[in-house]
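Batch manifest, entry 17 of 40.
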Amino acid sequence: MNNEIFVKMALDGWQGQLNATSNLFNKLSDEQLMQEIAPSRNRGVYLLGHLIAVHDMMLPLLLLGDAVYPEFHHPFVDLPDKAVTDLPPIAELRAQWATLNEKITTLFASLTPDEWFTRHANISPEDFAKEPHRNRLNVMLVRTLHLSNHRGQLALLMPKG
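Output type: structure tokens
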């Protein structure tokens, strides 16, 4: 197999998880997103903001540009849910989720298969020479798993039946 096939499989997995998560966000009401996944656990709104923050941080990590929403890192990554009481409105978060992921999809499509196997911003050229598996594709694969995990949590907000 060649790099093109590996990258296509990985991008298909990413896009599948992204589409499934977006569909879930579209099905969940604002009221459902304000609920905790389980008692004393994250609310859906926090996970929406968290996923925006993590996806946004992929831009500079993958050397694809600056973060669009750098202000999301602190309240949605550094801090636990409910530590910040003044979160953006859910409608705004929903729009930012869609806009950011459209941008990421376009940027991902612009990379050649070989570019996916180049280093990301958090590894030095010297370390990358020793550990070439620490590449852009690996970051995207890990973020796909991260997205899948949180989609599973968000599914618990759907009404039973």
